[in-house]
Design a protein that fits this description.
The complex is a heterodimer of chains A (317) and B (434). Chain A is of the alpha/beta class and 317 residues long. In chain A, a hairpin with a 2-residue loop joins strand 12 (281-286) and strand 13. In chain A, helix 4 (166-176) runs parallel beside helix 7 and helix 5 (183-196) packs across helix 7 (216-228). Chain A is 31% helix and 23% strand. In chain A, the strands form three sheets. A seven-stranded mixed beta sheet of chain A has the order 3-13-12-6-11-10-9, sandwiched between helices. Chain A has a four-stranded antiparallel beta sheet with strand order 5-4-7-8, covered by helices on one side. Chain A has a two-stranded antiparallel sheet with strand order 1-2. Chain A is built from eleven helices and 13 strands. The radius of gyration of chain A is 20 Å and the shape is globular. The two termini of chain A are 27 Å apart. With 434 residues, chain B is mostly helical. Chain B has helices at 4-61, 91-103, 112-118, 124-135, 152-158, 175-187, 197-200, 213-244, 249-261, 266-280, 288-312, 316-324, 329-358, 361-365, 386-395, 400-432, and strands at residues 66-75, 143-149, 190-194. In chain B, strands 2-1-3 form a three-stranded antiparallel beta sheet. The longest helix of chain B is centred in the N-terminal third of the chain and has 58 residues, at 4-61. Classes of the chains: A alpha/beta (317), B mainly alpha (434). At the A-B interface, helix 3, helix 4 and helix 7 of A face helix 12 and helix 13 of B. Chain B: It is a multi-pass membrane protein. Chain B: Residues 216-422 form the ABC transmembrane type-1 domain. Chain B: Belongs to the binding-protein-dependent transport system permease family. CysTW subfamily.
Chain lengths: 317, 434
């Protein structure tokens, strides 16, 4: 587990460096809330901002390096006519963890759900704009959402394993997509998915028992194993740790860091500390708009937008 | 903080606040205790009513579960039996006269004594004797003991249902017959035993021969038709409405109408069945197919509503999980949502089936109140059903049918208990799959 607690923006305004060791810890894990509150006491000294303080479509963007996996252009989402997302354009690089941060209701989860077309399942939801995965428009008529979701896996806020056995949970994806035929091959797929999710040692002797008997953190890792069992290209995570305790959170973050080498990961998180720890790229959303995006280090150290600074220093949100 | 006064005021205010809280707390606890007692009273009242009902039924019906048989020696008089057509011989008269002769009782010219004696035996005697002669013609000329049920009135007297203290003209069995009965009992030819006829026979005009088997089979056939039609249709409709149907005006109207249909009186379904299945489609009247169709129509709305609420109760996270894994809508519904909703669906199905089983009003309109002897074995033949049998027996003039009505009610209740038990077992099995 790497700790990437960056010097935050207030450092430059003269309040002195924030020593990460002074923040409350639990199980070697930084408490995200505690970090946020300590930052809230930052100085009120104004500084010059490069971008407008007013809410608007202005996006401060520093483009990522490396190949782009998903390119969103002018994506807007409407729920029963009410607009939830305004013209979001964002490049998501491959083999990288991209964090979507922002206050509640800012549209970050909505944006996440456009990438595997989960908004299709909500009646009255409409998505406009273009989202291209490897250059191919995923909202195109020729793209079957079923196939898309085999390529883009998703992990939800609350662990939601199927009320079946641990084995069946992991085997479900490969089974319905017909990726594996022989039983022995399936055993191998299940084992490697569970190993990659760091759950194998805990459940190897009870694969046939109910997934509902696992703890919350184990369930969430099982859900991750279930998602990676089909070898997706992208994994979307919607606040995967918000229902977990700090120790379980640490394990998931560790796991995310390992998975980054194979997958393109997009994670929505409420915890800025978590975004700082696990992501390389960060996008800040506010009131349905993408405000600022860039390398995580830059966003946390040098936010160019006032709202970004206010948010990451805990002045709102 | 240096000034003492605010502190004192604060202290007084805090004390006042605490007192108010305490007073309120007392009231809140009293309210809770009161509500608990109302609950207990309601349950107790329900239990009392249930107990009264059950005690009354069992008290009235338990005597129907045993009956009396008399064994009479009958000399198969060759002079009075037609070998070619034994069914035409008057075996009852023969047995009665021989019984009187054995006891040395002189009959009068009108045959009063023999007809009174005859009235003690069930008319079953004729059939038992005729069957025997038809099977073994060598019994003619010999004396054979025949075991036959006592007639319903004699049986009732022995069960203590007819009291000798009732004036003779107000009972169906007179003092002389009672004396004879007691003499037979003293001779040890009358035996009491479990009333198997009640469970092996169909309906009959003779109470001692009447049984519920015909009605049980009729009800079972009808219920089978109902289940085969209503469960797939109802569950299918509910799944479509809940999981697949677009939410628009049309589906709203359908939903409102289903809720309304659940409240339509069952007799209206009977009329519909009469008009639709019998008058228009010309399906056989009083048959399990028509009964089952009518009950299926009646059960459908309940089933749809129960299934929909069971589906609604499945957490959306399961649907999301399956969809996000790339399961199609159908895969999501049938391999994740429906199994989780299954216990609720089963409960709905069983409640609607139990309701259908006990339903009487629609059956009256499709001709199921007619007297149907024997046991049915096809779904297009006229049958009786348990509730209509209860209705018929309750209206019968013979007193012996009264205890049998109660017995039929017990059978109906046991039928329902068995169905519900089966449902609970099935539900457990579904639930055990997590």
């Amino acid at each position: 587990m790497k700790f990437r607690i960056f010097r935050s923006a207030e450092d430059q305004t003269g309040s002195g460096p924030v020593d990460p060791t002074e923040t409350p810890r639990m199980g070697g894990q930084l408490l995200p809330e505690a970090t946020a509150t300590s930052k809230a006491k930052a100085t009120e000294e104004p500084r010059a901002y490069e971008a407008s303080d007013l809410p608007g479509p202005t996006v401060v963007d520093s483009p990522p390096v490396g190949p782009i996996k998903i390119a969103a252009r002018d994506v807007s989402v409407f729920y029963e006519g009410k607009q939830a997302l305004y013209d979001v354009s964002l490049d998501i690089p491959d083999k990288t963890v991209t964090a979507l941060i922002g206050p509640s209701g800012c549209g970050k989860s909505t944006f996440l759900r456009t990438m595997n077309r989960m908004n299709d399942t909500i009646s009255g939801a409409k998505v406009t704009g273009r989202i291209a995965m490897d250059g191919e428009d995923i909202n195109d008529r020729s793209i079957d959402p079923v196939l898309l979701r085999a390529r883009v896996g998703m992990v939800f806020q609350r662990p939601n394993p199927f009320p079946k056995s641990i084995y069946e949970n992991v085997a479900y994806g490969p089974k319905i997509h017909g990726l594996v035929s022989a039983k022995s091959e399936m055993d191998g797929v299940v084992e490697s998915a569970l190993k990659r999710a760091g759950l194998w040692d805990e459940v190897a002797d009870r694969l046939q028992s109910s997934a509902m008997g696992l703890s919350g953190g184990q369930q969430q890792r099982l859900v991750i194993a279930r998602a990676i069992a089909v070898n997706p290209e992208v994994i979307l995570m919607d606040e995967p740790c918000s229902a977990l305790d700090p120790i379980a959170t640490a394990r998931i973050e560790e796991l995310i860091d390992e998975l980054r080498e194979r997958f393109c990961i997009v994670i929505v998180t409420h915890s800025m500390a978590q975004a700082a720890r696990v992501s390389q790229r960060t996008a800040f959303f506010h009131m349905g708009r993408l405000v600022e995006t860039g390398d995580t280090e830059d966003i946390f150290q040098n936010p160019r937008e006032r709202r970004t600074l206010d948010y990451i220093t805990g002045r709102f949100g | 903080m240096t000034d003492a006064t605010p502190d004192q005021i604060d202290g007084a205010a805090a004390k006042g606040r605490l007192d108010r809280l305490r007073a309120g707390l007392k009231r809140r606890h009293a309210k809770e205790a009161r509500f608990k007692w109302f609950g207990r009273l309601a349950i107790a009242a329900a239990m009392v009513f249930l107990a009264v009902l059950l005690v009354r039924i069992v008290e009235q019906g338990h005597t129907a579960f045993y009956t009396h048989t008399v064994t009479v020696p009958v000399y198969m008089d060759p002079a009075r039996i037609d070998r070619a057509y034994p069914q035409g011989s008057n075996f009852e008269q023969l047995a009665a006269e021989q019984q009187l002769a054995r006891w040395g009782i002189q009959d009068d010219a009108a045959g009063t004594a023999s007809s009174q004696m005859k009235a003690l035996f069930s008319s079953e005697l004729k059939f038992v004797a005729a069957d025997l002669v038809a099977k073994r013609s060598d019994v003619i000329g010999e004396t054979v003991p025949l075991a036959v049920p006592l007639s319903d009135d004699a049986d009732l007297y022995l069960k203590g249902e007819i009291s000798q203290s009732t004036p003779q003209d107000q009972r169906r069995i007179n003092d002389r017959q009672i004396a004879w009965l007691e003499r037979m009992q003293a001779e040890g030819v009358v035996g009491s035993h479990f009333n198997t006829a009640l469970f092996t026979n169909g309906d009959s005009t003779q109470p001692e021969l009447a049984g519920v088997l015909g009605a049980v089979v009729g009800s079972a056939l009808m219920l089978m038709v109902t289940a085969l039609i209503a469960i797939p249709l109802g569950v299918g409709a509910a799944i479509w409405l809940e999981e697949f149907a677009p939410k628009n005006k049309l589906t709203d109207i359908i939903e409102v109408n289903i809720n309304n249909l659940a409240a339509v009186p069952s007799i209206v379904y009977g009329l519909l069945g009469l008009a639709l299945f019998i008058n228009w489609m010309h399906l056989p009247r009083a048959s399990p197919i028509v009964g089952g169709l009518v009950l299926a129509l009646m059960a459908l709305p309940t089933l749809v509503i129960a299934t929909r609420s069971a589906l609604k109760a499945v957490p959306p996270s399961i649907r999301e999980a399956a969809l996000a894994m790339g399961a199609s809508k159908t895969q999501t519904v049938f391999s994740h949502v429906l199994p989780l909703a299954m216990p609720g669906v089963m409960t709905g199905a069983i409640i609607s089936m139990a309701h259908a089983l006990g339903e009487t009003a629609p059956l009256l309109l499709i001709g199921m109140v007619s007297f149907v002897p024997g046991v049915p074995h096809a779904i297009d033949q006229p049958v009786g059903a348990l509730p209509s049998l209860i209705y018929i027996w309750e209206n019968a003039s013979e007193r012996a049918f009264h205890e049998r009505t109660a017995a039929a009610i017990i059978v109906l209740l046991v039928f329902m208990i068995i169905m519900n038990a089966a449902a609970i077992i099935l539900r457990r099995r579904f639930e055990r799959r997590w």
